[in-house]
Amino acid sequence: MGRLSGLGLRTARIVTGLFLLIFVTSHLLNLSLGLISIEAMDAARPFLSEIWSKPPLGPLLFLALVIHFLLGLWAVYKRPTLRTNTQDIVQLLSGVIVIPLLAVHAVGIASLKIDGIEFGYAQAIKLFWLGAPQIGLLQVILLSVVWIHGCAGLFTWLRAKENMRNALGWMYPVAVAVPVIALMGYGEAGRGALIKAEQQTQQAETSRYATQAPSETPATPKKERIPYKTVKKVTNQVIWWSLALAALTLAARGVRLALQSSERVVLTRGTGPAINTTSKLSLLDSFRMHDQPHASLCEGRGRCGTCAVRILSSEFPLPEPTPLEAKTLMRIGPDENVRLACQLTPSGGRVDVEPLYPADYTFKDNDHEEDQRANDLLEAQT
């Protein structure tokens, strides 16, 4: 049951991540319309931004955010080592700070909706550029962090799929263009708001001397609103609780590793030198810890199969493949002596392996191999 749940958790993390990336993409597209006008941004808002605050997408978005955040912390807790590549570290850190950054935006929008206050892009741009530019800067940082986190996860997931290798070539430019155009739209909308504010200030100064002040009209009673102190308190609580949960996860991970028993493992790969490692680490983590390059397009998530090794010998019996590993092994070709280096954790003793793919392997290499086999077959026939 536990092994099956691991496959389910991976699927849940992918699904919630894709859902959140669609949410951010729609917001960035809405911001890009600022290149036209603020009116264009507000005209598209019901279809690109506002739908995410209403049922059914609103509750689903909140649920996806919480699940994705918790699954990310669980992945950190289960990691035997945090030593990995730069992309993985960026994705890890950006995932941890998403909720603290999102707190100001989410709590603020929720309080406005409860108060029944209309808050479109005209009001938002005015606030972010004139009233509280520090909040506007925070929104830019938030969207950037979420976009980087989402794209890093998306490309790692797609890179592990052989049938997606041709699509990544045009997806990379799109991933850069979308946030850049959105920031240009945000900047153009802000410039328009600053010009309009300056014009209104000049008109107000002119009218103060040219006309008599209008008679005062009776003030209409205002609806009782949520106090600002309450909004700020809730925001701070969300920030600190999410950061505390991340800190507790790292602490719990340290305790788990300290209490986990380990055995000495001597690992050899091909003709390379023997590695003295531990039963706490997978084969792939052992290679990384000793700076030995090894193929892994999915960064050790058990999806691509490029880290596969052939077991030449093992002093002790190896653990059975998990459902995730078994599924990938069936795709690359069933062989009882082949295992995934990212999923196999020896129990101890000496283990000799041979990599199936070179360290710099990409799925494009398959095309060259298939072309070479076709040419050889053609030459044999002629």
Can you give a write-up of this model?
The structure is a single chain. The protein is an alpha+beta fold. It has 11 helices and 5 strands. A 5-stranded mixed beta sheet has the order 2-1-5-3-4. It has helices at 2-32, 38-48, 57-78, 86-115, 121-131, 133-159, 168-210, 228-259, 283-289, 323-332, 364-381; strands spanning 264-269, 275-278, 308-314, 338-340, 349-355. The chain is elongated, with a radius of gyration of 27 Å. It starts with a helix and ends with a helix. Mean pLDDT is 85; it is low at 368-382. Helix 1 packs across helix 3 (57-78) and helix 4 packs antiparallel against helix 8. Strand 1 and strand 2 (275-278) form a beta hairpin. The protein has 2 domains: 2-209 and 227-256, 3 helical TM bundles of succinate and fumarate reductases (Up-down Bundle), CATH 1.20.1300; 264-365, Ubiquitin-like (UB roll) (Roll).
